[in-house]
Amino acid sequence: MFRVDIENKRLIELTPTGFTAMGLRERFDIQEWIEKSPSILGEQLLVIGKELTLESGRRLDLLAIDKSASLVVIELKRDDTGASAEWQAIKYASYCSNLTIEEIFSQLARYRELAEGEAEKLVEEFIDADFENLNASQRIILAAKEFHSEVISAVLWLREFGVNIQCTRLAPYVDADNALFIKPEIIIPLPEARDYIERKEQKRRVAATSQSEWTGYWFVNVGEGEHRTWDDNVKYGFVGAGQGRRYSSALKRLKVGDKLYAYAAGLGYVGFGQVISSAVPIREFVVEESGVPLLEENLTAANPSENADDDELCEWVVGVKWEKTVPFSKAKTFTGVFANQNIVCKLRNEQTLRFVQKEFGE
User: Fold this and answer.
1) CATH for 280
2) Mean pLDDT to the nearest integer, 50-72
3) Does residue 304 have a cis peptide bond before it, meaning omega lies within 30 degrees of 0?
4) What does the pLDDT read at residue 210?
5) 223, 81: one domain
C-alpha cells in the first residue's frame, strides 16, 4: 500500500503492521472506530448496540441494522480470528433472531439514550424495507486483520447453505511518521465474483417475489392478557392492540372491507373475519350488535381501560365481523405455517392461505 505525494510526484510505501504491535485493543480501539464509522465494513449500517450482554453472559461486539432491515452481528478480532470466530458469531446471530421488533426498538433506545418512539422513528427513516421485514433475516460480518484457514473454509461452506456471512479484512499500515492507516477489504464474498453473486441473488429474489405476492389477506396477532382476550374479540366483534404507539399503530393499516386471519402466537390460527370499522381508541368503539360502548360491556379482560384517555398509550380497536372462529385450544396449524411477530402484516404465504381457507373459509 502506498501513500501518494502528489506535489513531489512520488509514492511512499506504507509498512504493514499489526494492531497488537501498536498496542491497540479490540474492545477499546477497533470496536470504537467501527461503532462511529460502520461504513468501513462496506455499507451503511445503523448500530443499535455495543458490548451487548446475552443471556449466556457472553458479549456481542456490535449489533446493527442494514438498509434491508436485517439484523447484522459484527464480530471483531484484533489480529487473527483464531479457529472458531464463525461459530461464536453464529451463536450470537441465533440469539438475535429471536429479538422482537419491540425489543429492537428498546435496545436502540437504551443504546442511544432515546425515547422508544424516537428509536422507532430512527429505524423507520433508516431502512428501505417494510417494518414487517425487520429482523426477518440475520447477517454476520467478521472483521479482523487475518482470517484463519479453518474460518475461511467454514464461511464458504455456510454461504453455500444460505447463511449470509461476510469476512472483511482490516489491514493496518503505518508511514514513516508512524501514522496509522487502515485498508478495509471484503474477502468473502470475493470482489471478483461479486457481479456473478449479485446476479444469482437477484434471480433468487425475483423467483421468491413471484412466489410471495400479497394474497390480499391480512395476518393479525391476537393474544391473551390483562388488556385483551380472544373471547372478548369474538363476542364483541373486534381486534385490539395498544399500551404503546408502536403496537397500536399497526392496526391503522387495516381498512374497512379488508379480510384477515387471526393468529394466536405459538398456537395457530383461530379465526377469519372482515373489517367493518377502522381503528379508534377503545373509549370510542361502539359494539355494532348492541350499540353499547365497548368499555361498558361485560369484558373478560382484567384492565382493558388502562390509559383510556391517552391516545398514545390506550388500547386501539378495529371492528371485525367474524365469519368463523375457534378457541385457542383448537387453534389450527401445521409444520411450516406462516407466522409473524408483528401485530399486523400482509399474508404472502400461499400454502398457509390454502390451509386457513380450508379451515375457516374464504
Assistant:
1) 3.10.590
2) 89
3) no
4) 47
5) no
CATH number of 94's domain: 3.40.1350.10
Residues 8, 153 within the same domain: yes
Max CA separation in the chain (angstroms): 89
Grid coordinates given for 309: 384517555
pLDDT tens track for 150-203: 888 888 888 888 889 999 999 999 988 888 999 998 988 876 565 666 566 556
Assess if residue 212 is contained within a domain: no
Confidence of residue 27 (pLDDT cuts 50, 70, 90): confident
Per residue in 87-125, pLDDT tens?
888 989 998 988 888 899 999 999 999 998 899 999 999
CA distances from 194 to 68, 72, 188, 189, 355 (A): 18, 20, 9, 7, 40
Tell the residue number behind the cell numbers 401485530, with chain if given: 343
139 and 230 assigned to the same domain? no
**Do 61 and 188 fall within a single domain?**
yes
Distance, in Å, from the CA atom of 63 to the CA atom of 71, rounded to the nearest integer, reads: 7
d(CA 341, CA 71): 15
pLDDT in tens, 278-328: 999 999 999 999 999 999 999 999 999 999 999 989 999 999 999 999 999
- Give residues with Cβ within 8 angstroms of 225, minimum separation 6: 301
Residue 225 lies in a domain: yes
Counting Cα atoms < 13 Å in the Cβ hemisphere of 51 gives 6
